[in-house]
Design a protein that fits this description.
This protein is mainly beta. It is globular. The protein starts with a strand and ends with a strand.
Length: about 110
Amino acid sequence: WVQLVESGGGSVQAGGSLRLACAFFGNSDCWGDMSWHRQAPGKEREFVSRIDSFGRTSYAASVKGRFTISQDNAKNTLHLQMNSLKPNDTAMYYCKTEACTSWGKGTLVTISS
């Protein structure tokens, strides 16, 4: 079994920052290759960023240079540092374990102009 619990969402003004966290519980075989996705109101869920077990990262073009993904293997926690936030970053943010295709319930990020 796997449980992912996101936190750190909130409401900030454009230009601000937030740091999301995703706590991982369960089968350690499912930890390592992790990703963040988001879903804005009325839109489909989209990829944001991914990190693999070697620490290699990838980002959506819309967030590259503003967001940074990282993982703390000692604490089984995934992070997403989000800087220079824009109103169109407003969405529910979800973490996912790629190895076992499990999702958290999400944390809401709201950016006001």
